[in-house]
Amino acid sequence: MATADALALLQDIAKFLNQESPFGVPTGQLEAQLEGSQSGRAGNPHTFIEESSGGNHETQMMSAGEQATRASQVGTQGPTPASTHESNSGGPEKPEAVLKPSDWVFQGTFARTASLEERKPPLDLIVSSTSVFFRHIHPWFPFLDSHLVLHDLADLREPTLLYYAIFGASIPFLYHPRLNNTQSDSFWKYTKRRIFIEASEEPSYAALEAATILTLDLSGMTNGPQVWSRLAVVARLAAQLRTASGRVLRQSVSGGSRDGRLATTRPSARQRAKLFWAIFALDSFISITTSQPTLLTEHILRPFRPSREATWLHEPSHPSASCSASYGSAEPSTYSVSAAFFKLLQLLDVSRSYHDLYLSYITLTGNDESGTVSWLDSFYSLSHAADNCLRGLPPWCRLLLNTNTTASYASQYSYTRGTERCATAPRIHDVQPPVIMIHVYGHALTIYINSLLKFSDHQTLTTHDARVRESATVSCANSARAIIDIASMFVKTHGDRIGWPFSWSIWTAARYLLTSAKAAGSVQLSSGFYILLDSLQELGKYWQISKKY
Hints:
Its main location: nucleus. The protein is mostly helical.
């Protein structure tokens, strides 16, 4: 590839990063950032990516003209525009015309499915999708009671909203001849609108459960208004899950979708709390990936915080016990999906603090000396929070890597390099997917926050203590290498059981490597960068957002 073409491409990437990236955002442009994320443009620097064919990766970097040709073949925002969901089915499909990128980049989900007739999915597909959901999604998003949900399948005659939502979210993981792209879109269109209507017109606990899963589904497809507008509804209803003053959502709607789990008993305080913290997780993930402020304010969170540990770590001694009962604070000694999610929630507390710091950063002005000093104080107090969270994980939540990172990272779990070599590492297939997600997300947060200082063009920040900037550089480099190792080890084997925040974490590391290359004036990118790109392509089979970064 010609050097001139490579430089042109890198300059194009640099222009995008300077406009969209948290690593190089012009000061005083919060509104521009929010509008950029709302338009669906944020987080899409990889329009030049193509599937690896095993050849020299340098040949896969294309000139601007070649990018346009390639984009006309695969699109710039993900899979072919005719499909809302990419099914893994090998079923026959009619050839579909491919639109020019300029025609479909600005088409939303509605525009791409408007010509399709919505179809009610058959009961047998809905039933079969439930076990798929509990294999691929529930382990890292475990707010449902699997025993109750699966038990109700035995007497299921008409799907409830919950089962429709489970089916819609499970489509990318289903292999069935009746689920080609067109059929998948038709079924998904029906389930989406069914949930939208009931959750909006007749809010209830059952509708909120379904809307939460639908929001998760949408967030794995787009980072535009389709997802954060739906999140706004879900977050508003989540505030009604508290028990204070009896303000709770009704169980279900008379004459609506009847849920056998809620027919004879109200959801317990524990069930309501689990649903609330699932919505909290969505709010945290979606806000940081779309540059939107979080919707669940501290005023809403306050009633739920005292019982969070009890909700996820301790089973009540009898069915009538509430989640606010007295429990010991000892950490669990073994893995469980609930314990792993509790650790993820602790990391999401850090994530929200980092995102608040980012939103403050992009409002800094060049002549605001006091505001900059205040921001630096906040940075000092928070910059190592994600790393400290990973260091404090219990033994069952540790992840030993065959990493090439510096000794500071290798020793984060009090292992020496010799001890790590002698330790009996678990087999790859024995590593739990939620544990992988915790680690990769923690490292992505480290890059997210430290890159603000490393790549800042703010006058006061650029002239600040060089040792602090060097420390930020080392933290970013270590975390990027860790993410590369995690991606190379686990994407192929565990990628279908880790949520879309895994993709965002990989993209964050890839974006850091691109920005570093630009800052260094280099046209060469490391092999690790291409590992990350290939990983995003692989994960795109399950979460479309992976192909939009």
